[in-house]
Specification:
The chain has two domains: 101 residues, Helix Hairpins (Orthogonal Bundle), CATH 1.10.287; 154 residues, Immunoglobulin-like (Sandwich), CATH 2.60.40. The radius of gyration is 29 Å and the shape is elongated. The strands form five sheets. Strands 3, 4, 5, 9 and 12 form a five-stranded mixed beta sheet that branches. Strand 6 and strand 7 form a beta hairpin. By secondary structure, it is an alpha+beta fold. It contains five helices and 16 strands.
Length: 281
């Protein structure tokens, strides 16, 4: 069955209809590139408009697009060096429109930049693979997380959900979600690492599952973490998805804690994503 993840449902508004969130979610290089591109395009359009009205810019070379463009830049930025100035009614009308455009544009760009700077983000790293291995004598699904920041996340909560395609009694295929109960789903102080463990007992949605069966159902394990950033006192969240191919059966997460000569423990993040076969006993 073909998946339509990330596809927009019929009748949904176009992506540009939610331009604010699209821009806020954009990486900094993309956002700055969009702002710079729009700035150049708008000034170029105003430059053509000034030229369309004839030689309406004092001290500008007749028909010079460069002079009209930089006059537009100075006007939109309310710089006003004094050498170039509007000299006709047409150019003064354009200056009025451009100043209003520049003020509104500056307000919107300021709002976007402030929203991105003030937006709380989590730097939580999830292990690239989850493992299915015995834990305390019970087969368990395990994955781990690490707080990549130097601060702490308080009142952290983690949740794991199994998503898979199932067929109803009427023969309809549906995407269903099943909560995976964790041994410990809350952490009052998440500073370094945290291993989430789901025992695969008779009541688990993964009971009796096989790698082939999960792959055939398009199964995914969605892990999400929510907590409060201790530095800014704001709620942050992080999410990671494990496809069926990301589950390592009969393997364990490699140990990453080691004890220093002075007795302190250190986390070896270089082995954070490593898994190794479960030792036969």
């Amino acid at each position: 069955m073909a998946k339509t993840r990330d596809a927009r449902p019929p009748g949904a508004p176009p992506a540009l209809g939610d331009l604010y969130h699209l821009l806020v979610d954009s990486p900094w290089p993309r956002l700055l590139g969009i702002i710079a591109t729009l700035f150049l395009i708008v000034n170029a359009l105003f430059a053509f408009a000034y030229l369309a009205g004839g030689d309406g810019i004092e001290n500008a070379r007749p028909g010079s697009f460069i002079d009209a463009f930089f006059f537009s830049v100075q006007t939109m930025g309310t710089i006003g060096y004094g050498r170039l100035a509007p000299g006709t009614v047409w150019s003064n009308l354009l200056v009025t429109v451009e100043v209003i455009t520049g003020v509104l544009g500056l307000a919107m760009v300021t709002g976007l930049v402030f929203a991105k700077f003030s937006r709380p983000t989590a730097r939580v790293v999830f292990s690239q693979r989850a493992v299915v291995t015995p834990h305390d004598g019970v087969p368990s699904l395990m994955f781990r997380m690490a707080n990549a920041r130097g601060n702490r996340i308080v009142e952290a909560r983690v949740r794991a959900v199994l998503a898979r395609d199932e067929t109803t009694a009427e023969g309809e295929t549906m995407r269903r979600f099943h909560d995976l109960a964790l041994v410990r789903d809350r952490n009052p102080l998440f500073a370094l690492t945290w291993t989430a463990i789901h025992p695969i007992t008779a009541t688990s949605p993964l009971f009796g599952a096989t790698p082939e069966g999960l792959a055939a159902m398009g199964a995914e394990v969605v892990a999400s973490l929510v907590g409060i950033d201790e530095t800014v006192s704001q709620t942050i969240h992080a999410r990671h998805t494990y496809a069926a191919a990301d589950l390592a059966w009969g393997a364990r997460l490699r140990d990453i804690l080691r004890r220093l000569p002075d007795g302190r423990r250190q986390v070896d993040y270089a082995r954070f994503h490593d898994v190794e076969p479960t030792a036969e006993r």
